[in-house]
Amino acid sequence: MQIAKVLNNNVVVVVDEQQREQVVMGRGLAFQKRVGDSLDESKIEKVFALQSDELVGRLGELLSQIPLEVMTTCDRIIDLARGRLGKLQDSLYITLTDHCHFAIERQKKGIAIRNVLLWEIKRLYPKEFELGQEARAIVSKRLGVELAEDEAGFIALHLVTAQLNSEMPEVMHCDPGHAGDPATGEVSADAELRRRVAELPALCHPPQVFRPAHA
User: Fold this and answer.
1) What would the pLDDT profile of 50-64 be if each residue is shown by its tens digit?
2) Are 2 and 15 in contact (CB under 8 A)?
3) Closest by CA position to 21, among listed 39, 48, 45, 61
4) Domains of the chain listed by start with CATH number
5) Which residues are in the PRD domain (predicted)?
6) How far is CA 52 from CA 7, 56, 58, 147, in A?
7) Fewest CB atoms less than 10 Å from the CB: which of 27, 91, 110, 143?
């Protein structure tokens, strides 16, 4: 593999035989390397062959900004989820990793965030919520950070969305006053929550989605 772009010491972009870009990750993989150099394949920990160059670019930019340990931890969570849920959108590598990185940093700073959809998520998506709980345990074991149960709900939302046909949009409109039981009126609870999940942004942490735990 030849390097097409060096993002940091641990992450590079390469071009495969079909001229498609791939993101390659490994500790010290690109140390003292330049564009055009060959990779030491013994240092490769993960190769991301995503569906589009746009996703490759977004993932590469993200990986250049976060610790390798966070990415490998999220990769473990995604592998676990794929084993339970089946096919998931490639964009999950970006959205879940970005969210977990911010969640870990918030926790380290003692910033508590409440998930106003937690009750609905537990009830309607128990498999995804269980995976969210397991993700918390993985983060605790590998990174030494204890995430709140609310984060299991946020992770579950990413997994729900990754099973849909479209990526999470960047912009949302949210009515915080409509965060109670969705099983009212003529709209089913599942359909209502799916509508609201589909409105969540990629980062899943804007002010209008969350309420501080002390509020």
Assistant:
1) 767 787 788 888 888
2) yes
3) 48
4) 2-51 (2.30.24.10), 68-168+190-204 (1.10.1790.10)
5) 65-169
6) 18, 6, 10, 32
7) 110
